[in-house]
Specification:
The protein is mainly α. The protein contains ten helices and four strands. Strand 1 and strand 2 form a beta hairpin. Helix 3 runs antiparallel to helix 6 and helix 8 packs antiparallel against helix 9.
């Protein structure tokens, strides 16, 4: 089997609810990092897309948007898309923008949303990788920015069973790349068996 074929069939690494809570709790005193991780867990953005976000992408007319527009210039394959923002990430973004103002970071709509702490320049994808490496080391679990995207895609599919919705949200150009999110955990498989066939005894 070729390496490309193996990558396509490999199951993604997914953070369960406890692991998500652990890493968010570990970052509770790091406003930027916690907001960035939560933002990606709830939107499924790619590393470069998250780093390419501007303040104006999440705030319009003084309010946090309810639908995030991923601009074509930062999206992979230059295909724009729209992603609903749930309340917990909208609340986190509001608090985060207030934190940025207190730090005297640039607040113009075209200014970067996520900046480096020292120079206050736009956060780079490699910076995001380092953030995840440091957070992972502190909690003894290894996660990457791409695992946050995998987690979003998997949770969205499990909730909707709608592969097309997952494809649109993740910005895939075809369903081929989205099929990986159809993997089913043993617990979910058991629930579906019980629904389909009624109760059955366990050995």
């Amino acid at each position: 089997m070729s390496n490309s074929r193996r990558r396509k069939t490999q199951q993604p690494r997914v953070l369960d609810e406890i692991q998500q809570r652990i890493i968010l709790d570990a970052l509770k005193n790091r406003e930027r990092d916690r907001t960035l991780v939560l933002f990606c867990l709830r939107t499924g953005l790619r590393n470069a897309e998250a780093c390419g976000m501007n303040i104006g992408d999440v705030m319009k007319f003084g309010n946090i948007v309810t639908t995030l527009e991923v601009r074509a210039e930062i999206a992979k394959n230059q295909v724009a898309r729209r992603i609903p923002l749930v309340n917990d990430v909208r609340d986190a973004l509001y608090d985060f923008l207030q934190w940025k103002i207190e730090r005297n970071e640039k607040s113009e709509l075209e200014s970067p949303l996520f900046c480096t702490l020292r120079t206050k320049n736009r956060l780079a994808p490699r910076d995001f990788q380092r953030i995840m490496e440091a957070a992972s080391a502190n909690i003894g679990l290894r996660f990457t920015p791409h695992d946050l995207r995998h987690t979003f895609g998997t949770e969205l599919y499990r909730a909707t069973h709608d592969l097309e919705s997952v494809r649109i949200a993740l910005g895939h150009t075809s369903l081929d790349a989205t099929l990986i999110y159809m993997h089913t955990s043993p617990d979910i498989l058991r629930q579906r068996f019980e629904t389909a066939f009624g109760g059955f005894s366990q050995d």
